[in-house]
Design a protein that fits this description.
The protein is mainly α and 105 residues long. It has a domain of 67 residues. It has 4 helices and no strands. Helix 2 runs antiparallel to helix 3.
């Protein structure tokens, strides 16, 4: 249930991106240079595409309940755990319980 609600949080960055694109288009009305207008329209189109991607990811998460990032985070956690186990078994980082390092004062 909580994973589905994570999809609702996609509304916030989508709204922010669309707000920025609005101000880009608003600034384009004041610009006279043709090359700067083309750049502004390209920037606005990229912002709309990223907003659409974020919104579709949120809708996917709401509909299925599966977060696309969850599988990647799980894989990364497992690889980090594997590295820690390997380092612990090397004997370099393990200390014997009877041999504690001396502290100098």
């Amino acid at each position: 249930m909580l994973a589905r609600l994570v999809g609702l949080f996609a509304i916030v960055p989508t709204t922010l991106i669309l707000t920025v694109s609005f101000f880009v288009l608003f600034a384009l009305r004041k610009v006279d240079g043709k090359s700067l207008k083309v750049f502004g329209y390209i920037l606005a189109a990229l912002l709309w595409a990223s907003a659409l991607l974020l919104l579709s990811d949120g809708v996917y998460t709401l509909a299925t309940g599966r977060c696309p990032m969850k599988k990647m985070m799980h894989r990364r956690a497992m690889s980090c755990a594997g590295m820690m186990d390997k380092n612990m078994m090397d004997g370099q980082t393990m200390m014997d319980k009877g041999k504690m390092p001396e502290m100098k004062r």
